[in-house]
Amino acid sequence: MDRFLQTFFNPVVMAQYTPDIIAGVWVTLQIAAAVIVAGIAGGLALACLRSYRIRALNFFIICYADIFRALPPLVVILILYFGFPSIGIQLSGPMVLFIVLAATLAAFAEEIFWAGFSSVEKGQWEAGIATGLGFTRTLAYVALPQAVRLAIPPLVNRVLAITKMTALGSAIGVSEILSSATTAQSFSGSATPLTMSVVAYLVIFLPMVVVARWLESRTAWKKR
Amino acid sequence: MANRPMLEIVSLEKRFGTNTILKKIDLKVAEGELVFVIGPSGSGKSTMLRCCNRLEEPTSGDIIVDGRNIMAGTRRDLDSMRLQIGMVFQGFHLYPHMTVLRNVTLAQRKALKRTKAEADARAIDMLEQVGMAHKADAYPGELSGGQQQRVAIARSLALDPKVMLFDEPTSALDPELVGSVLKVMKDLKSKGMTMVVVSHEMGFARETADRVVFMDGGVVVEQGTPEEIFGAPKAERTRAFLSRVSG
After folding, report:
1. Mean of the pLDDT values across residues B159-185?
2. B159: DSSP letter
3. β-pairing, B5-16 with B60-65?
4. How far apart, in whole angstroms, are the C-alpha atoms of residue B54 and residue A29?
5. What is chain B's Cα-based Rg?
6. According to the model, what pLDDT value does residue A224 have?
7. Would you state the pLDDT for residue B219?
8. What structural domains and CATH numbers belong to chain A?
9. How far apart are CA B21 and CA B43, in angstroms?
10. Long-range contacts, stretch A177-181, CB < 8 angstroms, 24+ apart
């Protein structure tokens, strides 16, 4: 028991590396926030564009969504970080992590929002069009709010799954939580920093899981 | 001026692939007239109505509303002309995420560019006319079908349309709720609204319609006053249809 505590909960190591882990938390939070905003906005924009049913454009949107949903983000991260400098494109680690995760989230978000748009009744569109709103305003005021509401529960789950992947930054030296923890672990020779990373991840993501659960329980239309 | 056509359908044709739904339909609706369209399902009556505001794109022909051809002009012209053509659907299609009031003000504000105060005032007026002003802050999901349909009528009326199209407005309603919607339509008629109604409410047609049009197989088979059509139909197909629906 003593050995277990010494390995995973060494107070001296904890005290020493807490500032590093907190710095890592900050990096993770920043990248996660940027990924969430850019990924959701990108996915929503693509889904809106797709609803105009322009055949050539939709072909590209669907290809994009399918490819980025199929590829493991780590593969793309490694290509951008280690491969692109050879063709003259030098991106920082955090930038690569952001681009790849945002692009991945956008692909999933596009499909989720599109599913939302698809389940908005045809009659809703017709009502908007028949009252002279035209396609774009019907999209904005009638279809979009309904699609978004339908999309929220699956979207929150996807956001969670992808923001957790900020841990992949440790493969390219981004000093986020996991990276800070593994560095601290090699310096200290103790697994305690990894325990600290577990706590840090739980502090960040557990509230998000709770919010997701709450959102899922209230998908019905507002009744007063 | 009382008899000038408000809505004119000129050799309207609609084909889906090789299937011809409407075959050279001609129909004139005078200002203030209520034209009631009957016919078996698949006769093309709903398609004809939906062609009148190009929810369904006609294959050929013209639709003229108050002297303006909605088949001519740009997309934007079409949207502004759609404002003059009110449409009431079988399934109501109120926006579930908006209150009754916002349902009625949305197109007023975004398409007609009325101010919030103007749109709200107009909406309350129209909701009063259909007896729904007390539910202005409710959401559609809290209303009965009849109430929803009356709100949908108010939503169309608030845009000051020149003609109102009703596509089986009471078919989705429980029998006890039908009356409230028909009453609103009757009021509308007495206020001089030009109306085209596709419906199976023969009693309403007898009482309120100026003219009854019988369609079958994509053509207008016969038309006349309710007395003529219901009392002494000339065409065999009309007689067969009427004996089926009344029998």
Report:
1. 95
2. T
3. antiparallel
4. 51
5. 18
6. 38
7. 95
8. 17-223 (1.10.3720.10)
9. 8
10. A177/A21, A177/A24, A177/A25, A177/A27, A177/A28, A177/A201, A178/A24, A179/A24, A180/A17, A180/A20, A180/A21, A180/A23, A180/A24, A181/A17, A181/A21, A181/A24
Q: In terms of pLDDT, which residue wins out, A215 or B174?
A: B174
In what helix (H) or strand (E) does residue B143 lie, and over which residues does it extend? none
Scored b (16 or more CB within 10 A) or e, A183-199 reads: bbbeebebbbbebbbee
B97/A149 Cβ within 8 A: yes
Which of A132, A142, A222 is the closest to B82 by Cβ? A132
Lowest mean pLDDT among A8-12, B151-155, B206-210: A8-12
Residue B48 neighbours by CB distance under 10 Å = 29
pLDDT tens column, B66-75: 999 999 988 8
Q: Which residues of A touch B (CB under 8 A)?
A: 121, 123-124, 126-134, 137, 141-142, 145-146, 149, 221-224
pLDDT at B110 over 90: yes
- Give which of A129, A131, A137 to mutate to test B binding, by max B Cβ within 10 Å: A131
Mutate: best of B110, B157, B171, partner A, most A CBs <10 A: B110
The average confidence (pLDDT) of chain B is 94
Residues of chain A with pLDDT under 50: 223-224
Question: What gap in Å lies between CA B8 and CA A20, rounded to an integer?
Answer: 77
In this predicted structure, what is the pLDDT of residue A209?
A: 86
State the Cα–Cα distance between residues B123 and A213, nearest whole angstrom: 38
pLDDT value for B118: 97
Q: Is B96 part of the contact surface with chain A (CB cutoff 8 Å)?
A: yes
**Number of C-beta neighbours around residue A221 at 10 A:** 13
DSSP state of B71: T
- Give me the residue from A133, A146, A149 closest to B111, CB to CB: A133
| CA-to-CA dists, residue B76 to A129, A132, B54, angstroms | 12, 9, 13
